[in-house]
Specification:
6 helices, single chain, about 160 residues, mainly alpha, two-stranded antiparallel sheet
Length: about 160
């Protein structure tokens, strides 16, 4: 069994963490120049959460965004509807892992949306509203498909 450290991935992951720190710091610095966000933004947090969920899955799993990931990942199999399960190419283990994992990518997306929301609140609110609406519609499509399958299997 190959150890994690001997694969060379450790250095790539450390570099990614350093880049993330610089990236997040840049958003904090940009946001510091704007008015503070209103406190008690439960609606905003839920909206940002739904938007982060949808955008991270769109980037990391959607068939339509496969060309963005193709230099860094290989397709393993079909995943959820309109999604692909992928693994990192050996030549790009860190970027491939990041781009194929909605949980990993979600942190980057959340920082981006949160920082951008402080700098361009109206514009980002429109984008978050749209992404949250798509996430809601996706959930409804999946529930509808499950209900159709359930009723087709029921005797009348």
């Amino acid at each position: 069994m190959t150890s994690y450290a001997s694969t060379g991935r450790q250095h790539g992951h450390l570099a990614a963490l350093a880049v993330f720190g610089i990236y997040a710091g840049a958003w904090v610095r940009a946001a510091a120049r704007t008015a503070p966000a209103a406190s008690g933004r439960l609606r905003g947090a839920l909206l940002s959460g739904a938007a982060t969920f949808r955008l991270s899955r769109l980037i990391s799993k959607a068939d339509i965004t496969r060309p963005l990931r193709s230099p860094f990942t290989d397709v393993d199999e079909a995943g959820a509807p309109a999604e692909l399960n992928e693994t990192a190419k050996p030549s790009h283990p860190t970027l491939g892992a990041l781009l194929s994992c909605p949980f990993c990518l979600g942190v980057w997306v959340a920082v981006t949306l949160t920082g951008a929301q402080r700098v361009w609140p109206r514009e980002v609110e429109v984008i978050e509203d749209a992404l949250a609406a798509v996430a809601t519609a996706d959930a409804m499509h999946l529930m509808y498909a499950r209900l159709v399958r359930a009723t087709e299997n029921q005797p009348e």
